[in-house]
Design goal:
CATH class of the largest domain: Mainly Beta
InterPro entries: FN3_dom, FN3_sf, Ig-like_fold, Interferon/interleukin_rcp_dom, Type-II_Cytokine-TF_Rcpt
CATH topology of the largest domain: Immunoglobulin-like
GO molecular function: cytokine receptor activity
Protein name: INLR1 protein
Number of domains: 2
Number of strands: 17
CATH architecture of the largest domain: Sandwich
Distance between the termini: 84 Å
Helix content: under 10%
CATH superfamily of the largest domain: Immunoglobulins
Shape: elongated
Length: 204
C-alpha cells in the first residue's frame, strides 16, 4: 500500500485478575507520544465477527477491562488491539483465547465482623463486577485461636446470610480469615484475606 505504518503494540495478553478479564499490551518501541489504542473482541460462537469495545476506542492507556463487555462468560473470547496516531495505524495484534468461567482469577474477600454478646456475625464483601454476580461464588472462612494452628472451617455463599459463630465457649484472642472459592471445571481459590482478630469474653 506504500503508506507508512505504525509498529503494532507488543506483549498483547488477555489475563484475569481480581475477578476481572483484562486485556493488556505495551507500546511499540519508538511509538509517537500521541499514540492511542483501539480494541475489539470476538467469541468462539461468532468467529467471523469482531465486536467493537466503545469504552476502549482511541484510548491512551495500555489496558482494557472486558469483563462486562463479554456477552457470554462461558465461552472463549479473543481480543485484538491496534495503535493509532493521526492518519497512521498499526496492524491489529491478537491475544490468545481465554474463557472467563474456566480461567477467572479470584480476589480474597474483605471481612466485616459484628461481635454480639455470645456470637460473632461475619459478612464477606467482594469487589465483584455486577455482570458476574450471578456466578456460583462462595467463600470459606477459617477461625482459630491466636498462636494455634488448629483451624475451624466454615463455608458460605457470597452475599447470602452472614456466618454466625457461637462464641459462648470461646475465651481469648481469636482470628478469622477467608478466601473466595469457585467451582467451575474444578475448584479455584483466592489467597486468604489478612486475618482479623478479636478478643472474646475477656473480663474487664
Amino acid at each position: 500500500s506504500g503508506c507508512v505504518q505504525l509498529l503494532p503494540p507488543q506483549n498483547v495478553t488477555l489475563m484475569s485478575k481480581d475477578f476481572e478479564m483484562i486485556f493488556t499490551w505495551t507500546p511499540a518501541e519508538g511509538s509517537p507520544p500521541d499514540v492511542t489504542y483501539t480494541v475489539r473482541y470476538k467469541s468462539q460462537d461468532h468467529m467471523n465477527k469482531w465486536i467493537k469495545v466503545p469504552k476502549c476506542k482511541n484510548i491512551p492507556r495500555t489496558s482494557c477491562i472486558l469483563t462486562c463487555v463479554i456477552r457470554n462468560h462461558y465461552i472463549k473470547v479473543q481480543a485484538q488491539v491496534k495503535a493509532v496516531s493521526g492518519p497512521l495505524q498499526s496492524p491489529w495484534v491478537k491475544s490468545q483465547f481465554k474463557n472467563y468461567f474456566a480461567e477467572v482469577e479470584l480476589a480474597p474477600p474483605v471481612l466485616i465482623l459484628n461481635a454480639k454478646k455470645n456470637s460473632i456475625h461475619v459478612n464477606a464483601s467482594f469487589s465483584l463486577p455486577t455482570c458476574v454476580e450471578h456466578l456460583p461464588w462462595k467463600y470459606e472462612l477459617n477461625r482459630w485461636e491466636a498462636g494455634s494452628e488448629d483451624k475451624k472451617k466454615y463455608e458460605a455463599k457470597f452475599r447470602k446470610n452472614s456466618v454466625i459463630i457461637d462464641t459462648t465457649a470461646l475465651r481469648g484472642n481469636y482470628c478469622l480469615s477467608a478466601r473466595s472459592l469457585y467451582e467451575s471445571i474444578d475448584f479455584k481459590y483466592s489467597e486468604f484475606s489478612q486475618p482479623v482478630c478479636v478478643l472474646l469474653n475477656h473480663k474487664g
